[in-house]
Amino acid sequence: MQGVNFRESWATRMGFILAASGSAVGLGNIWRFPYMTGEHGGAAFLVIYLVAIILIGYPVMINEIIVGRKTNRNPVGAFKALAPNSPWWLVGALGVFTGFVILSYYSVVAGWSLAYIYKVVLSTTAAEIDHADVFIGHITSVWEPIIWQAIFMILTISIIAAGVVRGIQRWVTILMPALLVLLVILIIRAVTLPGAGEGLTYYLQPNFGDVGPRTFLGAISQAFFTLSLGMGAIITYGSYLRQKDEIPGNAASVVGLDTGIAIMAGLAIFPAVFALGFAPDGGPGLVFITLPAVFAEMPMGVLFGLLFFILLSIAALTSAISLLEVVTAWLIDEKGWSRGSAAVVMGIIIFVVGLPTTLGYSVLSDVTFPGLGMDLLDTYDWFANSIFLPLGGLLTAIFVGYIWGARNAVEECNRTSGFICLGNWWIILIRYVVPVLILTIMIMGIYDTFFGD
Ligand code: PHE
Question: What gap in Å lies between CA 191 and CA 181, rounded to an integer?
């Protein structure tokens, strides 16, 4: 049914909110947010991140939804429709490329989560176990993570091949409430562990002493990543909006839910980190090491552990499908491919491109990018989230603010009204605040990463 001329829309008003929250809420909230906070000193990072969400994340989310709803196109087609015969479509192409890179390593981490559905059972029932050893043992073994990465990609491809409503919308409806409930249970257990107070202080009492350019770059990279911004996922999901759906209220719901879940993940993790004697700057392994240790301290911990990693895997899946959907929509709209072949062919290529990041913990562990000193997964993550996403968001803001015209965007947005209306506040944010903040933070942060000490 999905020929070049037929394009699906979300089936209900909640469809967009659910799918966009499904895209936003994922490993970014539960895996990346805590370890970024831990690596950047705790509460001070949290504060800067929240400011970035309000001043950059929210206006940019509105911006991308407007472009999507206005054009009903994938990111490349959207720029072509708004600025024909100009090179601006390259911004859309940058987005498609970035989605490709992110999914290639996202599927690796999602594969860890899938594997932990059974690993957590083993590690919470064993009497004496070193949770860090279990995690490192898993990621440094060559084949196991690759197999789970492949399984995760197959799941993602199958959902995208099934289409927007039957595939995406159906899945996200049940997940969110379940994840929320489980997080609350985890928070209660974590904050009542003896010694949890130190973790709460670390997480909630800012100390701006160690804040530097890298903290700000980390915060905007996290803001873009967690809200799925800067690479066209929200343009694409916005393009499936019906013309009567409103925008700023929908965007506020998505941003609010996503931010709430990230803050809750921190509340579940930092008290436990300190109470159980882990280091907060443990990097990408943080969640996989700390939470199993918390489960081991709980009555029915096995059950909760199992549930948690099932939900985390589903949350990762509803984000991964939005990454694959961007590439797929581009091939369908622009190149006339069928949905099925676009999803399968791109899915396989993305899997192969992701292989070095998983092998970076085993056979390729000596390979690093000059000047960065990170493993390969962190390197992919750094380029995608510290460079490509903010750059995509910046260029889209400049495009709408100055080329297509901020007034046109406001008019298009206010064509439908909800409880928030766009006005000069948004124009000032999108034309001045967003570009100036992103540019300054990127330049200083990148310089500091390569040349700072
Ligand atoms: N927002 C997702 C997460 O937090 C990741 C993502 C980034 C999804 C960019 C789509 C686009 O896990």
Answer: 16
Number of domains in the chain: 1
CB 81 within 8 A of CB 73: yes
Whole-structure pTM value: 0.95
Which of 39-53, 151-165, 244-258 has the lowest average pLDDT?
151-165
Domain that holds residue 121: 4-451
CA distance 25 to 15: 15
At 350, which CATH number? Answer: 1.10.4160
pLDDT in tens, 172-224: 667 777 788 889 988 998 999 999 999 999 999 999 998 999 999 999 999 99
Ligand 1 atom nearest to CA at 230: 9
Assign 3-state DSSP to the chain and report helix, strand, coil percentages, each to 5. Answer: 80, 0, 20
Q: Is 24 in the pocket of ligand 1 (CB under 6 A)?
A: yes
Q: Ligand 1 centroid to 43 CA: how many Å?
A: 23
Q: Is 213 in the pocket of ligand 1 (CB under 6 A)?
A: no
Q: 110: CA distance to ligand 1 center in Å?
A: 12
319 lines ligand 1 (CB under 6 A): yes
Neighbours of 392 (CB within 10 A): 26
Q: Could you read off the pLDDT of 304-357 as tens digits, one per residue?
A: 889 889 889 988 998 999 999 999 999 998 999 999 999 999 999 999 999 999
Alpha carbon distance 152, 155 (integer Å)? 5
Cα–Cα distance measured from residue 378 to residue 81, given in angstroms and rounded to the nearest whole number:
36
- 433 CA from centroid of ligand 1 (Å): 23
Q: What is the DSSP letter of 6?
A: -
Report which protein residue has its CA nearest ligand 1's atom 10.
Answer: 228
DSSP 393: H
275 CA distance to ligand 1 centroid (A)? Answer: 30
Q: Are 318 and 171 in contact (CB under 8 A)?
A: yes
Please tell me the distance between residue 24's alpha carbon and the centre of ligand 1 in angstroms.
Answer: 5
Across residues 253-262, what is the average pLDDT?
Answer: 95
CA count, 13 A, side-chain hemisphere, 247: 32
Ligand 1 probe mutation, 53, 94, 98, 322, most atoms within 8 A of CB: 322
- How many angstroms is it from 239 CA to the middle of ligand 1? 18
